[in-house]
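dumping this here before i forget
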Amino acid sequence: MLIPSIDLQRGRIVQLVQGERLALATDDFAGWIERFRAFSQVQLIDLDAAKSAGDNRALVASICAELPCRVGGGIRDVARARGALASGARKVIIGSAMFRNGEPDLELAASLAREIGEERWIAAVDARGGRVVVDGWRTQLDISPQDAMRALEPYAAEFLFTNVDVEGLMRGVDRAAIERVRAATTRRVTAAGGVTTLQEVDWLHGIGVDAVAGMAIYTGKLRYS
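structure:
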């Protein structure tokens, strides 16, 4: 399954290269919402909230009213997760908050599974150089994404794996890295980072992985029907 991504920063839709360099920005919310109506899921990330640099809550709520969104960015506890769901998110994505003292925070994971249900939240495991990164991809932990997924598997029904090494570069996915995380869990896996062609989407589907794409869709390189 192909899942288009909407990233929000300073009130605009943006695309960043490896989470840092601005490559694209637009205010055409109506246009992109209309383009994404046919999708069963859309990934909506508040980058400002993720980096503790403000938030785009009103925009998130308005987009959730139009599209079936899985929402991430700045959701760090059960209360914020409930708030996002109440604002229209179908699922919530939790990343950096899922790690404490360099390890998966199993207490938070268990609380989320108990309070909102394991089907309503997605554990985001971002990696650079084969190790988990947190805090807007600025801090690298001494744990592999595979080990993080194995620890969190009892509590989350789905994982979002973002490979920062290829994020936004449109040079293709790192197939070996995705195969490793796919083998690490029986839970649903979505891969982000480097998805550029429908052939890659088909390959991911073939190994039981959903695909998130952003830059390739916005630039027109990835064309879909």
